[in-house]
Amino acid sequence: MRRSRPLSALAVALLAALALAGCGAGDDGAAPDAAAATAAASTAATPATTVADTTEADAEPEPAGPRARIFMPIGEARATVILLHGWNDLDPAAYGAWIDHLNETGVAVVFPDYQAGLLSSPASMLAGTEQGIRDGLAEAERLGATGPVVAAGYSLGGGLAVVYAAMAADWGVAAPSAVYAVFPAEPLGLPAELPPVPADTTVEMLVGDRDVVVGRGGADALAARIAPHPARITALVSTDAVAYDHFAPKRDDARAQADFWAPLDRLIDEAAPPAG
Question: Is-above-0.85 flag for pTM?
Answer without folding.
Answer: no
